[in-house]
Amino acid sequence: MAPDPWLPLLAAARQLAQDIAEKIQERNRCQRSGESSAKVNVAIRASLQSLREKIEQLRELLLRAVSTRQITQLEGDRRQNLVDDLLTRHRQLEASYRNEGPEPDMSRSSLMAGGAKRGVTNPWLLEESEETRGLGFDELRQQQRRIIEEQDAGLDALSSIISRQKQMGQEIGNELDEQN
Fold first, then answer.
1. Cα–Cα dist 27/38, whole Å
2. What is the Cα–Cα distance from 51 to 45, expressed in whole angstroms?
3. Residue boundaries of the structural domains of the chain
4. Cα–Cα distance between 92 and 49 in angstroms, integer?
5. Residues 6 or more apart in contact with residue 138 via CB below 8 angstroms
6. Element of type H or E holding 3
7. Are 58 and 13 in contact (CB under 8 A)?
8. I need a surface site. Which of 56, 116, 126, 151 has the fewest CB within 10 A?
């Protein structure tokens, strides 16, 4: 019996996602220091496309394995969740790539840290973060829109996962009713 190519492909896709995240950080460092980031942008774009192709290969292999009963339904569901997680990571990386700025996680953590200061009664006296320092009104609005889009993408991914779990629960319930 031939070895299952799915797990090595999953590991390669995860490693590629990690590499893309590192390249995005490198690009952001280049932009902050005034260096050219064109080569890194091209590499990121190519890597994102490669990651998308790997995810599609994983989906196809999973569909084939489930339909030919090479793996159990439980293993198929587990693998589907792994593919869903990878797809969510891909969306996050694409959003970070389009952001052309700091990683969204950095923005969120700085926003949370700014709100956690104690003893300051006037919120307008809080020190401005590096991410927003020097930005005009329109630029701040664009940054807020990007953050909201990233959150919407995350919520969409969460919604699809929850609806899949709901479907699985209903199928389990139907199976139990049938068995009873």
1. 9
2. 10
3. 1-101, 137-179
4. 14
5. none
6. none
7. yes
8. 116
| pLDDT at residue number 29 | 87
Segment 23-45, tens digit of pLDDT: 988 888 888 888 888 888 899 99
- Give the separation between CA 61 and CA 6, rounded to whole angstroms: 7
Architecture of domain 1-101: Up-down Bundle (1.20)
Residue keyed to tokens 């593919």: 83
118: left (phi over 0), alpha (psi -120 to 50) or beta: beta
Locus of tokens 């709901």: 166
CA neighbours closer than 13 Å in the CB half-sphere of residue 35: 10
Question: 55-59, 86-90, 157-161: which has the minimum mean pLDDT?
Answer: 157-161
CB 9 within 8 A of CB 54: yes
Question: What is the Cα gyration radius of the chain?
Answer: 21
> Which whole-number Å values give the CA distances from 90 to 21, 46, 50, 148, 157, in the listed order?
10, 13, 11, 17, 11
- The gap from C-alpha 176 to its chain's centroid, in whole angstroms, comes to 35
109-118 pLDDT, tens digit per residue, is 445 554 444 4
